[in-house]
User: Fold this.
Amino acid sequence: MISVCKSKQSILSAADVVENLVGGSGAFATDVVELGDGKTVSIASLDGFGKSAIQSMNVEDASSVRSADIKLAQDLHESFGPIREHCPWLLNAREFWEWIAFSELREYALARWCGGSDWLINSEIPRPKDSALERFLMSPDSVHSQSRHVIRRLYIYADCSFSFDGTYDHISTILADDLDIPGAVFERKLGLSPTLAVALCRAANKLGAVKKTDDAKAISARSKRRKFFKQVNLLVSSVAMEFLSDAQIDDYLNGLVAEINSAS
Amino acid sequence: MTRYGHTPYLQAIFKSSACIYGSKSLTQADWDLIEVDGNNEVGSDDLGIYYETIYEQGFVRVKVVVESVGQLGIEEYLKHNESSEIFSGGLVALGTTSRVRRYFNGQVDFDSVEEILKFKSEVTLSVEDLMGTLQLEPVVVAITELIDPLNGLSVLPGTVLATSGSVVLKDKPLENKFGDLFRYEWINFAESEIYKKDELFDIDFVSVPPRILLNKGIQNFHFVMDREDNERGMQPKSVKSRRVLDTDISASVLHACGASVISRIRSKAAVMKEDDPQADEFGDVFDALTANEQSFIQGFRTLLTMDVELENNYQFCDQISKASESAINEHLTSRMLRNIQRYVDGENGLMDLLDLAGFPRD
Assistant:
């Protein structure tokens, strides 16, 4: 049976997030989700996934964070199978993700985005940035908010890969070395199509930084990526990418990448 | 630079007729036409249907059928391209809540008698899957590389050549009338740990619908609240005697709501800037607000706006996000205050507040 924990008060801002984190997991009272037809649904405990991710993750080492995120994304998606089957609407409920972030995977979320939980008990340690704390919030109607949530982002990446071809092979393409890429794709409506999202991540990963030489100035991967996504936005303003085949999408996007890479 | 889908190319907006059907069966084709407000024509405007209308009638499936009325406006492409199999017609589905972005294939046929293209597309959806707002946009796209009749340049596969207004399935929005937008509650702030006993009111934007909490403990706030016999159903005194007080409160509530929404927009924008210092577009902040906050902006944007009447809520969020701190402070204490005062000085403010507080009008 799924029990979703609801916060005692509305959580709207970074300050509210801190208040709920200070209260610990116990700040959430438990309410059973009504499925409407008297049925219940069971999922595996998520606690073990969170602990395993924390153990394998060294925040100073981007590669270990990436590996932990990839594994956790798959674990979550596999675990939520019964929810997708019986009550898919739950995956869009704000309370559900609040419960996961503030209770079930609280320690992972703190370790991953807030440098751990010491700052909660030691006032001499500075509070994390608001942009990190607001990752505990989730607005169901906003793709930006959905894909920035401490946990839901991982579920979205896994679901994208799984919807693409029934495997989890593409999570590592989405969560590649440059973590700004999934942000650029999934924080916009581009990420709503699994085919387009996977193709965009694959293409954007080909935009390498250019080192400064005597003849040319350095060009960061970030500036190339900005150029790429500006071009992509131009493209989608006149082309229905949803209509195109995987190969056609790859063709268009690789054309953009080649042009940007050759111009630098 | 390669121009994908060069601009301008021959594009058209066509008129269409959209019908929405409901079925109470998951398997049988027993479709009933669902009546929508207005007529079923869509052109440059969208056709909206509320989920409530579907739920109320107990449907478990919904079918949307869109057909063109008259020519599509892109018939010229046929004269400049050898094959007639150059178009695909269908519906592009976009839903941010249900996370859908896909193409539903339909058909485009050439009517040789009338010499026009005819479009038809339909999609069947399970009511269980409907969440948030789902937009279905009729489009005609190029299947192959085409020659553009306007200038002879080529148009790439996938380019949208013609489009019609969308069918939008959505939740019923909160009404934009003040009294309907909010639910009011009288409570004694002195008996609550959350509120200060001297505060006149508080606004809870999170509950659905949002609530305005009025402090029952303030003497003469509404003196009728202090009368025991009122609780037994006695009528309050003449409404006119409370006019000045009510108008002031109405303005205060509106101002507090406006300031709260503006503060939330700026706080969301600040987080975006913190994350990406080069961010320069903040219209998307609107999507990150709660449904109540969005409703408030939708209803009262003309009162909250800083200088010109903006075209939409996204532009409003962008403008508020980019304004300097001093400009916002001045706005809150000057222009916005004047706008609200003018609004409540009319009958609207008073009447809305009376609706809000549940009093009969005299």
Notes: The beta strands of chain A are 3-7, 28-32.
